[in-house]
Prior knowledge:
It is a single chain. With 105 residues, this protein is mainly alpha-helical. It has a single domain (3-104), classed as Tetratricopeptide repeat domain (Serine Threonine Protein Phosphatase 5, Tetratricopeptide repeat), CATH 1.25.40.10. Helices cover 82% and strands 0% of the residues. The chain has 7 helices and no strands. Helix 5 packs antiparallel against helix 7.
Amino acid sequence: MSTREAQFLELIAQYPDSPMGHFSLGRLYVDEKRFADAVGPLSQAVKLQPDYAAAWVALGDAQVGAGNKDAARDAWRHALATPLGKRDLSLQADLDARLNELDEF
């Protein structure tokens, strides 16, 4: 276990109702290409804060990496439905491109 992973697990233990620790742990797992491990913490982050666009995007990334295209599509569509997703044109363009890439496979 890395130091960062241990820190994020401690953050979750101290603040289980905060989405930040769950998001940070999930993002770390995505960065380490531990996609299946990332799904749980990222799912918890969006459960705790349903309008957390970055967590929805990361959850989609984790799902793609884990081979779950339909779940990735759902996560990215949720990201687009958040307040940030509705107003951030660069996020919309990025997610539209990701969704189109999924449809091409």
